[in-house]
Specification:
With 253 residues, the chain is α/β, with parallel strands linked by helices. The protein has one domain: Glycoside hydrolase/deacetylase (TIM Barrel, Alpha-Beta Barrel), CATH 3.20.20. It contains eight helices and ten strands. The strands form two sheets. Strands 1-2-3-4-5-6-9 form a seven-stranded parallel barrel, surrounded by six helices. A two-stranded antiparallel ribbon has the order 7-8. Helix 6 links the parallel strand 5 and strand 6. The radius of gyration is 17 Å and the shape is globular.
Length: 253
């Protein structure tokens, strides 16, 4: 059995917000960074401003959450774009979020792709490189949040962009380290105990159980909770309140 870290260490808890769901304000007390929809897969200028205001009030780091321009499917349907169109899609949304932050006296901290864009890029080096290049061209100090050990992380690192290895409090993993597709019956974690156990194992031991029962190695700088999940508030509260009991502090990167 591996031995967990003895000294206090930190983990970021991020949440996808500004997507039109009712728990945004309540979640703010239990997270350290927010990924705010930029109006393409969800949200609009008003929700962006309202969510940024909440982040400022609660001292939560602000991130852009660009997705496919596909509100009908909440950005969770695969799309094929040219390299140029993909670059523009990402750049336009980051710029919109950055400009909105500036008007409110806020700073943009990170970028995390959404839904199908995130999952496709995690498996595709070319897509990941384009996303990373778009981010770096706009602001090279921004952090790219991407699935741990995926192309998103590798390609961003290759061009000198800061990265955050992301894991999930409400999703399961395949044996190859990819997220279990949402079409799979075991894709989601649905209990408080299961969610917290997965997060604690990852943070303490850098390991987690895949859906086939095998154990996989993972890195974790940030833990995601999907704001649209029916258990999002309960999961966030449990993780935020219980981690300090294991010598783990919640803090933005």
């Amino acid at each position: 059995m591996p031995v967990p870290y003895n000294s206090m260490h930190t983990i970021d808890i991020n949440c996808d917000l500004g997507e039109g769901f009712p728990n945004d304000a309540a979640l703010m007390s239990y997270i350290s960074s927010a990924n705010i929809a930029c109006g393409y897969h969800a949200g609009d200028t008003d929700t962006m401003k309202a969510t940024i205001e909440l982040c400022l009030k609660h001292h939560v780091a602000i991130g852009a959450h660009p997705g496919y321009d596909d509100k009908a499917n909440f950005g969770r349907t695969d799309m094929t774009l040219s390299d140029c169109a993909l670059y523009d899609l990402v750049a336009e949304q980051i710029t919109l979020m950055q400009d909105t932050c500036k008007t409110m006296g806020a700073n943009l901290h990170h970028v995390k792709p959404h839904g199908a864009l995130y999952n496709m890029a995690a498996k595709n080096a070319t897509m990941s490189r384009i996303i990373a290049e778009a981010i770096k061209a706009i602001d090279p100090t921004l952090i790219l949040y991407g699935l741990t050990k995926s192309h998103l992380i590798a390609e961003a690192k290759q061009i000198g962009l800061r990265t955050a290895d992301e894991v999930f409090a409400d999703r399961t993993f395949m044996p190859d380290g990819q997220l279990t597709p949402r079409t799979h019956p075991d894709a989601m974690l649905t209990t408080l105990g299961g969610s917290f156990a997965q997060v604690l194992m990852i943070v303490q031991f850098k390991k987690t159980a895949a859906i086939d029962g095998s154990t996989i190695d993972v890195n974790a700088d940030t833990v995601c909770i999907h704001g649209d999940g029916k258990n999002a508030l309960d999961f966030a509260k449990k993780i935020y309140q219980e981690l300090p009991n294991f010598n783990i502090r919640v803090k933005a990167l």
